[in-house]
Amino acid sequence: MKRNESNRLALPLCLLSWFCGQPSLQAQEAVPSGLPASSPEVKYLVTQEELDALEADLMATVKENQGRLCPRPVLRGKALPGSGQNDLAGVLEGKENEACYKAAGGKDADALWAWLEQPSHDSGPPAGIVKACRGLPAAVSHATRHEDACSPYLVGRRAMPSLVRLLRLSWVLAMNVRMLADAGKTAAALALAFDGLRLFQDLSRGAGAPYATGTVGGAAWHVIVTRGIGPTLSAALPSPDLLARITQEVEVLLATEPAFCDFLPELRYGPVLLWYLPVLKGEGWVPPGGFEADMTKPASVPGGPPFGSREWNDAALHWLVAERRHRELEKACSGQSRPVALAKAFDDVFVAASQRCRRNKCRRVIFTLLAAEPILELREMLLDGMERSEGPWYVHPVVNYQARTFWLQALRLQLEFLAVRARTGKCPVEADLADSSWEPLLEDCASGEPMLVAVAKDGSVAIRPSVAFSTAVPARSWWKPRIPEYTFVCK
Length: 491
Prior knowledge:
Blueprint: H1 3-15, H2 25-30, H3 48-66, E1 80-83, H4 85-93, H5 98-104, H6 109-117, H7 127-132, H8 136-143, E2 146-148, H9 164-182, H10 186-203, H11 211-235, H12 240-255, H13 264-281, H14 310-335, H15 339-359, H16 362-371, H17 376-387, H18 392-424, H19 439-442, E3 452-455, E4 460-464, H20 467-470, E5 486-489
Parallel strand pairs: 1-2
Antiparallel strand pairs: 3-4, 4-5
C-alpha cells in the first residue's frame, strides 16, 4: 500500500474518535516541522516526532509514579512507617493467598454467597473457603496500617491482577466479619470490615490509579457494608465507645475518599501503554509494569508496522485522540467537584464533539473517502464509533463511582440512628429528620442535595441517593444507573 493510500484510510479512522471535524487537525497534527499547511508535501496526519514527544511525557509520568507519595491517616492505632504498596499488592497477588482466591471462586462459591445472603446463620460457611482464607484478614489489616498508601497499580508501577479477585476478596472479608460477629466478637468484626473498606480505598488512591479499582471497588464496598457491617450492627447494639470509634472511622474514610478525577491520568495513559505503544513498538515490547491479567495482548509484528501504514495510523491517531480527550476532561474536572455535575460536564465534552462532527458532515466525508475502495471492516469500525458518540465509557464510571461513596454515607446515617437510640432510648422517626441538625448527614456528597430516607412504622429505614443520581446519565443513553438502596431496622 502506498503512503498516500494509507493516509486516505487514516482520515476516516480519525472520525472514530469524533475529532475529524476540527479544521485545525491538519495544521496542528499533520504538518511536519518547518512545512506550511498548504505545502503539497504534507501527506501524514501524524508525525513520528509528535509521538516521540508524547512518549517522553508519558515515561516521565511513569518515572514520577515510582516515587509518588499518598499520605493519609490510619483508622486506628499507630501508623507503620513507609509505603504500603507492596503489602497492598500482596493481598491480591501474594502466593500465600492463591489458594484462598481459588477456593472462593471454586465449587463452593455459590454456597458462600448463599450463606452471606442469610439474615441469620444456622450453619457455617463452606469449610474449604474458611480454611484456605484464614490468613487473608490479617494481611488486609496489616496492609492498611501504613502511613503512605498510594495504589500499587498507578500507571507504570505494576500490572493490575484480575479484577475478579477484588470481588472475591470482598466475599471473603464479609464472611469473616459475619463469623466474628456470630462468635460475639463485634469489635473485631467491625475493625476488619472497616479495614476492608480502607484497603479498597487505598487501591484507588493517587493520581494515576486505575479507575477499575474504583468502580469494581464500589461493588466490593456494597458487599462488605450490606453483607458484613449491616448484619453485625443489627445483631447487637455496639457499646457507646465502640459506636463512637466506628463513627469516627467512617468520617475518616469519607474525608479521605479519592476523587474521580484522580483516575484521569490512567484513562489517558493506560490505553497507550497497554494497546497503542505495543502495536507501534512491535512484538516483544512490554509496557512498564507489564500487561494486565485480564487483557488479551494486542497483535503486533516484529519492529512494529511501517510508518504511515494503516496499522501505524490507527494506533497513532487513537493516541492523539486520547491526548485531546484528556485535555477536555481535565478542563471539566477543574470546574467541578461533585460527581453528578462532573458526569454532566464529561457528557458535554462528547456532545460538543458530536455536534462539530455533524456540522462538518462527517458521514458524507466518510463515505466519499470509502467510495473508491470500500472496506467493510473499516466501515463497521467507523459506524460503531458513531454509535458510541455519547462517550458512555467516561460518563458511566463517574456515576458508578459516586454509588461507592453512597454506601459510606448510608452507613454513617445508620450509626447516627443508633447513637440517638443509645442516648434517648428510641429511634428517630421520619419527622425528626426535618430538623436542621440532620442536614449535614443527609446531604448527598455526589450532588449536594438531600438523600432520600424513608422510615416505616415498624422501624425499618430505607436510604437512597438524591434524585440527582438518577438524572446524572443523559436521558438519551442506553445505559441507566442502578439506584442503590441501603436498609436497616432501628427499634
